[in-house]
Every structure is written in C-alpha cells, then in structure tokens.
Write a structure and sequence with these properties.
It contains five helices and two strands. The protein has a two-stranded parallel ribbon with strand order 1-2. The protein is mainly α. It has one domain: Arc Repressor Mutant, subunit A (Orthogonal Bundle). It is globular. The longest helix is centred in the middle third of the chain and has 15 residues. Helices cover 45% and strands 4% of the residues.
Length: 102
C-alpha cells in the first residue's frame, strides 16, 4: 500500500466522534493537498476493510456527499447538527489534528 493511502487511513481513523474533516483537509494532512478525489476513492474502496468512520468526511462546503443515505443519520447520532441548507458548521464541528502525519 502506498504511503499516502496509509496516511489517509490513519487520519480518518483518528477523527473523533462528533467531528468531521473535509476530503481536501484529509489530503493536505496526509501530504498531498491536491488529492481530495483520491481521499474519496480510498474512503469508498477501503472503508469496510479498515472499519473507517467514513461518515465523518464531508465536502469543503460542509455538505454530506451521500444525500439520502445513512451518513446524516450517523453524524446526527454523534451529535453533529445540520444547519442552514443542511450544511455542517465547519467552524464548530471541523476536527483539526494537532500533528501533521507526514
């Protein structure tokens, strides 16, 4: 497995319950700020295998990516509230890791 993929998996596993990170933010912390789409691919292809809390990764606008799915339900169960236009308030719920991984 490539280093970037390993970092992405590690970062996503560390997002605490009740918080979110954006695809681009995960990519940047993992060492490649332009790899947001790769983060999305890693999530879709490896979430089950690595038991990733996939619901905690959202887009940069604060929107969930899977409308009509269980993502919103799972986040609400963790205490994340949705506001205007069904967006997550990133200033309140965005997790910012203390340490860069790479």
């Amino acid at each position: 497995m490539e280093v970037f993929t390993e970092e992405v998996i590690k970062i996503i596993k560390e997002i605490p319950e009740g918080f979110v990170m954006t695809y681009g933010q995960v990519a940047q912390v993992a060492g490649n700020k332009r790899a947001a789409r790769q983060v999305a691919w890693i999530l879709s292809s490896m979430s089950q295998k690595y038991k990733l809390p996939w619901q905690r990764v959202i887009n940069a606008k604060g929107e969930i990516s899977h409308t009509g799915s269980e993502q919103r339900e799972l986040l609400e169960l963790e205490g994340v509230q949705f506001g205007f236009q069904d967006k997550v308030d990133l200033s309140r719920y965005q997790y910012v890791p203390n340490v860069k991984h790479h």
